[in-house]
């Protein structure tokens, strides 16, 4: 079975009580090839993936340039091993708050964020997931530091959840999400991204009948707010909480656990047998 790991990485978030970024100086927009030049290593085959993304997006229509569309597509692609995916490496860096580590990402971020800010904001209900019960870390409100991959189709992902394990499901009322389905390697995931620094208020928590946990969140802020702060500066906050689940521990729960999809997959869900969960 294959499903994108980034939808299940809520357990990787640091939960600051408050978050502050300085506005960053304008970076020059460059091609996707130039933007990812410094990312390999640690991202294997990144140059090939960028060219693939650009070729696929060459016929893309809409408000985005080909390079901007390719930046989004590249974010949704896997690089052989899940831990080498663009989304994994980028979000790990953002959540670390380490300015030096983020330097190599600034050109890609400028292209990626420029593309996302051109897309209309999504206002509605979206879902995100985490392995394990992490509800105790969600009290009054939280700030998610990375790009948060959510879906508008909860049922699509629920069939992949292993009933022998506990999961936390986040039901989010968003006001400024960015729908990237048209620019995704796997449109069926119906992905909506929340920007780094998104502030969420905890509405309630619930124990579901199947043993899973659920947290209801409301996004706070102006619906037309764009990601303007400088991402290369440190995060300051009054307190930090972490779920305690690292990336590798979420991948190896059992042989029947969710696996990431192979490189350049066509994301066909027809071949997946939900009974194996």
Automatic annotation (TrEMBL):
Pfam families recorded: ART
Domain of life: Eukaryota
Keywords, in A-Z order: Glycosyltransferase, NAD, NADP, Nucleotidyltransferase, Transferase
GO MF annotation terms: NAD+-protein-arginine ADP-ribosyltransferase activity; nucleotidyltransferase activity
EC number(s) stated in the UniProt entry for this protein: 2.4.2.31
InterPro entries: ART
Catalytic activity: L-arginyl-[protein] + NAD(+) = N(omega)-(ADP-D-ribosyl)-L-arginyl-[protein] + nicotinamide + H(+)
Protein known as: NAD(P)(+)--arginine ADP-ribosyltransferase
Family recorded in the similarity comment: Belongs to the Arg-specific ADP-ribosyltransferase family.
Keyword Nucleus attached: no
């Amino acid at each position: 079975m294959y499903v994108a790991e980034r939808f299940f990485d809520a357990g990787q978030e640091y939960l600051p009580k408050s978050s502050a970024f300085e506005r960053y100086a304008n970076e020059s927009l460059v091609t996707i090839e130039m933007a990812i030049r410094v990312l390999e290593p640690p991202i294997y085959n990144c140059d090939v993936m960028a060219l693939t993304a650009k070729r696929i997006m060459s016929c893309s229509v809409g408000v985005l340039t080909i390079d901007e569309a390719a930046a989004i597509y590249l974010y949704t692609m896997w690089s052989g091993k899940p831990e080498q995916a663009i989304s994994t490496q980028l979000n790990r860096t953002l959540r670390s708050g380490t300015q030096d580590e983020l330097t190599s990402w600034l050109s890609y971020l400028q292209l990626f964020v420029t593309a996302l800010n051109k897309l209309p904001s999504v206002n509605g209900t979206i879902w995100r997931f985490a392995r394990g019960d992490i509800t105790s870390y969600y009290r009054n409100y939280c700030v998610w530091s990375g790009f948060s991959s959510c879906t508008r189709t909860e049922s699509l992902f629920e069939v992949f959840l292993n009933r022998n394990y506990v999961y936390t499901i986040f039901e989010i009322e968003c006001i400024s999400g960015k729908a990237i389905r048209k620019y995704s390697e796997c449109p069926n995931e119906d992905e909506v991204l929340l920007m780094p620094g998104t502030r969420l208020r905890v509405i309630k928590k619930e124990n579901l009948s199947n043993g899973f946990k659920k947290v209801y969140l409301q996004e706070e802020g102006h619906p037309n707010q764009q990601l303007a702060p400088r991402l290369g500066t440190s995060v300051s906050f009054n307190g930090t909480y972490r779920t305690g689940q690292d990336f590798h521990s979420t991948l190896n729960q059992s042989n029947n656990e969710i696996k990431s999809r192979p490189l350049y997959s066509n994301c066909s869900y027809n071949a997946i047998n939900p009974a194996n969960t």
